[in-house]
Specification:
Radius of gyration: 12 Å
Structural class: alpha+beta
Number of strands: 4
Strand order of the largest sheet: 1-2
Helix content: 10-25%
Shape: globular
Distance between the termini: 11 Å
Largest sheet: 2 strands, antiparallel
Number of helices: 2
């Protein structure tokens, strides 16, 4: 696996889906998602305020997905 897919779910069940290389930090992925936030949605909070959850755990902004995925698969 050389990339991961992030799917952000909105309250109305619509989604944003993006692919990222494994070495991108969690905060880097959050910033990318915040920049692509749909105009018809409530304005995006600061990237630092978004929560990314993997296998039931909130991911730390300074970590990358690479180690997290390898440890949990």
């Amino acid at each position: 696996m050389s990339e991961y897919t992030v799917k952000f779910l909105f309250a109305d069940a619509s989604t944003i889906q993006e692919n990222f290389p494994l070495d991108v930090s969690v905060i880097g992925a959050k910033r990318h998602l915040a920049a692509k936030w749909p105009a018809d949605k409530t304005p995006a909070p600061a990237a630092e305020e978004l929560k990314m959850i993997f296998n039931g755990k909130i991911l730390e902004n300074t970590k990358s997905f690479a180690g997290r995925i390898e440890n949990d698969i």
